[in-house]
UniProtKB/TrEMBL annotation:
Enzyme class: oxidoreductase
The species this protein was found in: Streptantibioticus silvisoli
Protein name: Deferrochelatase
Protein encoded by which gene: efeB
Cofactor dependency: heme b
Enzyme Commission designation: 1.11.1.-
Record-linked PROSITE patterns: DYP_PEROXIDASE, TAT
Function: Involved in the recovery of exogenous heme iron. Extracts iron from heme while preserving the protoporphyrin ring intact.
Keywords, sorted A to Z: Heme, Iron, Lyase, Metal-binding, Oxidoreductase, Peroxidase, Signal
Length: 449
């Protein structure tokens, strides 16, 4: 498994061909840092020392990396947790998402938050390599260290990415002086009426995996470790990644049936990533350099209206051919759109087409890395309409990039007739951790308690 601080190394073909499924009966895991006694006590104190559950101790059951068998042809089944960048940003997008936002509980102090972040680091590291949450295996007087539903499953390239919201840097935890300079609540943007209860949060966790159960398991276990320390604020499940983030991936389709991600940033292009995605030396807060900003938007698609629209109009909305994904001025998906082309005196790619308004050529070179997923909330119990759309996630070196784009899209996009922004979030995602480092010392710096 690659454990390099060179971001490029994570894209190199890994020697790992795929881990064996998790098993409670497997030999001991490679050593993972145990939760601190403080956090462990807190965990036991808040969960309760009640459930004497018989059976194997999943917490110690580290997956043993198998050789000679390939879980997936194209991608290794594990993504290294450690490295210069947090995994889950430049990582080729997995098929499934579980995203959760949390607020720090009123009774939590700086020490307790730091202890939890140390515990989370150990748990996230273990889960991404296919092991269970570390703890005290075999302790029949305590709840199991791991909830168990991922036992027997391969990690499916699980990545766990953490982010911090603007509110975390208020006066509660002594973090005011460490706030990343661009981490401020986003301004009101055109046409939006966001649900505050399903927006924002002090911390977020983005878990992505090719297996939905593995992604859910990761968030569930982090949430469980946070009992009494953090309160869940909102959660979103995603399927059918709606952006390709690597040329090795076929472009997926969104719920409107269009290929989505064709002109996304190629995450293997280091120069583009430095220019548009990674926070660089311009940021005074050194600890966040090498990280990124995550903007999320739950965007409902008005699918009943969309499904009644003509094919020609649907294609005008995006400026692309629905079948091939080609721009209306081209023949193949990856042809460069010609925004000057006219037919009968009008633009072939309409003046209000989504790709015209969003294109970097028309926004002073501005680009973002999209990493969204489709979502569904079932049906509206009153109207019977389908509830679903795009859980938009984008990474960028400055949230102003999103604001600039959304100001234009919110006012002029032909797509607006068929969508509504439901909720959103902004989080600073720190750089990756070196082996032995943890999220607490990274966030709090040398003053960690
Ligand atoms: C503020 C940023 C963006 C929001 C919000 C957004 C919503 C949104 N997009 C689609 C579907 C497509 N988007 C496409 C391209 C595209 N979209 C954005 C930005 C936002 N989209 C950008 C920067 C681009 C690239 C533009 C370019 O350079 O050409 C496409 C075309 C294919 C592609 O290149 O990915 C589709 C399709 C939906 C459905 C949606 C909200 C529900
Ligand atoms: Fe878009």
């Amino acid at each position: 498994m690659t454990d390099s601080h060179d971001p490029a190394a994570r894209h190199a073909p890994a020697a790992v061909t795929g881990p064996a499924p998790r098993s409670g009966a497997e030999p001991a895991a490679p050593p993972a840092p145990a939760p601190s006694s403080v956090s462990r006590r807190r965990l036991l104190g808040t969960v309760g020392v009640s459930a004497a559950v018989a059976g194997a101790a999943l917490g110690a059951g580290g997956a043993v990396l198998a050789t000679g068998h390939r879980a997936e042809a194209a991608e290794p089944a594990t993504v290294p947790f450690h490295g210069a960048r947090q995994a889950g940003i430049a990582t080729p997008a997995q098929d499934r998402l579980c995203f959760a936002s949390f607020d720090v509980a009123a009774t939590t102090d700086r020490a307790a938050l730091a202890a939890l972040l140390r515990t989370w680091t150990a748990a996230a590291e273990a889960m991404t390599r296919g092991a269970g949450v570390p703890g005290h295996p075999g302790d029949l007087q305590s709840p199991p260290d791991d909830t168990g539903e991922a036992a027997g499953l391969t990690p499916g390239r699980l990545t766990i990415t953490v982010g911090y919201g603007p509110s975390l840097f208020d006066d509660r935890f002594g973090l005011k002086g460490r706030r990343p300079s661009a981490l401020k609540p986003l301004p009101y943007l055109p046409r939006e009426d966001l649900d505050a209860t399903a927006s924002d949060g002090d911390l977020c966790v983005q878990a992505c995996s090719d297996d939905p159960q593995v992604a859910f398991h990761a968030v569930r276990n982090l949430r469980r470790l946070a009992f009494g320390v953090l309160n869940p604020r909102w959660m979103e499940l995603g399927f059918g990644r709606t952006s390709s983030t690597s040329p090795s991936q076929a472009t997926p389709r969104n719920l409107m049936g269009f290929k989505d991600g064709t002109r996304n940033i190629d995450t293997t292009d280091a120069a583009l990533m430095d220019q548009h995605v990674w926070i660089g030396a311009e940021e005074p807060q050194r600890w966040i350099r090498g990280g990124s900003y995550l903007v999320s938007r739950k965007i409902r698609m008005l699918l009943e209206a969309w499904d009644r629209d003509s094919l020609g109009d649907q294609q005008q909305v995006f400026g692309r051919d629905k079948s091939s994904g080609a721009p209306l001025t081209g023949r193949a998906e990856r042809d460069t759109p010609d925004f000057t082309a006219k037919a009968d005196g009008t633009y072939v790619i309409a003046a209000d087409a989504h790709i015209r308004l969003a294109a970097h050529e028309n926004n002073k070179g501005l680009r973002i890395l999209r990493r969204g997923y489709s979502y569904t909330d079932g049906i509206d119990p009153v109207t019977g309409d389908l509830l679903g759309g795009l859980f938009f996630i984008a990474y960028m070196k400055d949230p102003g990039q999103f604001v600039t784009l959304q100001r234009v899209l919110g006012q002029h996009d032909k797509l607006n007739e068929y969508i509504e922004h439901v909720s959103g979030g902004l989080f600073a995602t720190p750089p990756g951790l070196a082996a032995g480092q943890d999220w607490a010392s990274q966030l709090f710096g040398s003053r960690t308690v």
